Amino acid sequence: MTPAPHRSHADDLLSFIGSSPSPYHAVASAVRRLEKAGFRELCGTDDWAGASGGCFVARGGALIAWYVPEGAPGHTPFRIVGAHTDSPNLRVKPRPDTGSSGWRQIGVEIYGGVPLNTWLDRDLGISGRLALRGSGAGDRPRTRLVQIDEPLLRVPQLAIHLDRSVNDGLALDRQRHIAPLWALGAPEEGALLRRVARAAEVDPAEVLAWDLMLHDIQPPGYLGADREFVVSSRLDNLVSVHAGVTALANAATAMEQPAYIPVLAAFDHEEAGSGSETGAQSPMLERTLSRSVAARGGGSEDWARALSGALCVSADMAHAVHPNYAERHDPDHRPLPNGGPTVKVNVNQRYATDSTGIAVFAEACERAGAPWQPFVSNNAMPCGTSIGPLTAARLGVTTVDVGVPGLSMHSARELCGAADPGHLAAVLGAFVAGG
Fold it and tell me: CATH homologous superfamily of domain 89-216?
């Protein structure tokens, strides 16, 4: 069985994932936990002068949060945990109401690297945000979150009797056959909007636009003879977001000496390249951190010193060795679930890790009493990437890419070890506390 502290963390993780079917919900879930720990929101249009303690900036599906110990000078270096809130999925098109052959369907667009076969024959709900008439904070449109955890939609697989080659590969045309069905009858313009608006308790006439997506309504849970695995949607990368929130909230209650400024940067759109106003390529993190220096009376020299002493851990899911495809992995780097987080290395800078970053992370693992595992891709299998290289290049800070090893990455339902999320949170806690 998973040790009690890690089981408790895993239980809390499952609750966090269940309440976070979209990046916008993930930010809202994180904000609730940070506010409970005493953090307060700062709006971009506010004057931040003198701001200290726990602070955060939330923008759409992205969140930057930090804790300033009392009396910390402007040049205090940052300890940054980077993660992302988004996951590959199916997103609702602007004109969604469609259909064929007497079926009413919903038009969707494929977001990120989706293994489409994992979305077949699943009961799907809808979540996201609605943009409403009128202005909210900072003259931005008002928004309302919506989460329908009902079996509303389904992408039905073609019966094997009608396609005997289905087991030879994915018999699915990305452009023509991905529209989920949800009712019988001819397409009816505005039908989906009315259903979603009712769930959000708003008048459909108030809705001007939306960012809506589908999610598997099967709840997160445990798997295995001794419940040693976690199975859930969106483990990539809510495992890391949850661990980062936990580490930051704990740091805010335990930190006494102003040695570092602990920071959580949870970006959106990583699965689509991070090129948005809330992605890792945007100036969001840089602007936020520079303003936090200025709020403590620091100038350009303090800002340069704070970055020069900064360190970043970019936390994203990693690949455990697959027992049925072991030849796809490097023979000497085969992480296993519950063996601790992996440190991801790629000399071509798909990951930002170098020896100095490994040393920092290894020492944090020692302080946390947690194991860790090295990961390198098979030379014949180009690896993915993460926000680590983007953060390192934009801010010029030493960065190490790490992650909890799992299987079925990007699937509608992923798997990882039940102990590893707790290990990651403990290591990130030791990292942001310094030492």
Answer: Aminopeptidase i, Domain 2 (2.30.250.10)
